């Protein structure tokens, strides 16, 4: 296209009934460059924090397999990616000067000829979301670690996963993945992340609690060295240390490493062991057996079982059964469908442990219930049931 002259620009302004005195003297004349295809460029809208990440030379990574909705991850956060359409055509003009820059640069020539390198009618919008971590446990549970003598481990055909593999497969940031590996008590064995088989984990925990009992150590001060010394002949030393890390808090006192054992977590594990072999358990019988089964000096309380077991107060006699929050769906609506399938009406106290992890940033359990359930009063107690019929 022929370059426009100043006279042509002024004639156009006159036709458009615009007063040149009210405009900046510099004029951009735009023309489409030979490569101005729309498909080459994508726009991504970033919040200031993410922008700073890129400006500091760090990476943002898009994660997801073919059948998954793409997410974008920084080092420590995960964002949903959605396409937002705009009513205006967005043009990409390299070296384009904004009015602010032009004011500062009064001496610039009063016609600038710019080529449009590309255009777009939409952009990617990012929204902070919960990391999709359910798959992490699912992958590691394909092949739980049953100990060094397990024949199954030698013959296993399942994949094993390094940190690198998990970063490629899980839709979450590196920090969120590493934190979740800690939460689910995974451990690194020969460079691969593994979850201990529950029976093997209980066997290790049993060794440790029996040793604490026989040595009469206080639960708040269990010495690492003595544990490794005493139990090293029964199980690998790194497994003994892993179980202490899983069920205790490590600290150093006078140069020696000790563990303060988590009473709630140990009581919870014992309850899981008792409940996993029964469909339903008479509540008072269970409480009695549970109290007898935990290590000396520990106190069992039903609130230790939040998100692990559910008490049915309406049955006669009252019962308790295993219901693990990690076995429920990750999607909000599916989670509620599944809970209302298990029980028609829930109190807020009972349902909270099973939906707490669905709360987005600054979102409360109450807000979730308002959206996915309807409330009513039952014998003077507020209960929640499904907004939609459950098939």
Automatic annotation (TrEMBL):
<dbReference type="GO" id="GO:0000775">
    <property type="term" value="C:chromosome, centromeric region"/>
</dbReference>
<comment type="similarity">
    <text>Belongs to the DCC1 family.</text>
</comment>
<dbReference type="GO" id="GO:0000785">
    <property type="term" value="C:chromatin"/>
</dbReference>
<dbReference type="Pfam" id="PF09724">
    <property type="entry name" value="Dcc1"/>
</dbReference>
<dbReference type="GO" id="GO:0034088">
    <property type="term" value="P:maintenance of mitotic sister chromatid cohesion"/>
</dbReference>
<dbReference type="InterPro" id="IPR019128">
    <property type="entry name" value="Dcc1"/>
</dbReference>
<protein>
    <recommendedName>
        <fullName>Sister chromatid cohesion protein DCC1</fullName>
    </recommendedName>
</protein>
<dbReference type="GO" id="GO:0006260">
    <property type="term" value="P:DNA replication"/>
</dbReference>
<keyword id="KW-0235">DNA replication</keyword>
<dbReference type="GO" id="GO:0031390">
    <property type="term" value="C:Ctf18 RFC-like complex"/>
</dbReference>
């Amino acid at each position: 296209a022929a370059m426009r002259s100043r006279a042509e620009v002024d004639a156009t302004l006159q036709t458009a009934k615009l007063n040149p005195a009210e405009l900046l003297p510099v004029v951009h004349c735009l023309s489409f460059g030979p490569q101005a295809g729309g498909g080459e460029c994508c726009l991504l809208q970033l919040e200031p924090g993410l922008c700073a990440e890129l400006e500091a030379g760090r990476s943002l990574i898009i994660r997801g397999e073919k059948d998954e909705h793409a997410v974008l991850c920084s080092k420590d956060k995960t964002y949903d990616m959605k396409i937002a359409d705009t009513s205006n055509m967005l043009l990409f003009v390299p070296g384009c000067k904004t009015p602010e820059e032009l004011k500062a640069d009064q001496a610039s020539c009063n016609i600038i000829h710019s080529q449009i390198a590309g255009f777009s009618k939409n952009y990617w919008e990012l929204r902070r979301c919960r990391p999709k971590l359910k798959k992490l446990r699912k992958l590691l549970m394909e092949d739980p670690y049953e100990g060094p003598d397990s024949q199954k481990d030698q013959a296993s055909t399942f994949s094993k996963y390094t940190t690198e593999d998990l970063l490629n497969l899980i839709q979450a940031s590196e920090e969120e993945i590493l934190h979740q590996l800690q939460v689910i008590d995974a451990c690194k064995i020969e460079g691969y992340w593994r979850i201990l088989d529950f029976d093997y984990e209980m066997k290790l925990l049993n060794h440790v609690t029996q040793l604490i009992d026989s040595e009469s150590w206080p639960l708040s001060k269990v010495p690492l060295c003595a544990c490794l010394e005493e139990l090293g002949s029964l199980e690998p030393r790194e497994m003994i240390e892993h179980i202490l890390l899983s069920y205790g808090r490590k600290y150093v006192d006078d140069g020696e490493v000790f563990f303060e054992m988590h009473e709630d977590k140990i009581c919870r594990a014992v309850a899981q062991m008792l409940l996993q072999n029964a469909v339903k358990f008479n509540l008072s019988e269970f409480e009695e057996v549970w109290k007898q089964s935990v290590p000396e000096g520990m106190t069992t309380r039903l609130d230790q079982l939040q998100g692990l077991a559910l008490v049915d107060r309406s049955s006669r006699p009252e019962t308790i059964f295993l219901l693990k929050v990690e076995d429920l769906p990750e999607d909000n609506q599916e989670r509620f469908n599944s809970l209302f399938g298990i029980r028609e009406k829930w109190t807020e106290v009972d349902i909270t442990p099973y939906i707490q992890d669905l709360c987005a940033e600054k979102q409360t359990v109450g807000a979730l219930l308002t959206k996915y359930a309807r409330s009513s009063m039952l014998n003077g107690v507020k209960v929640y049931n499904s907004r939609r019929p459950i098939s």
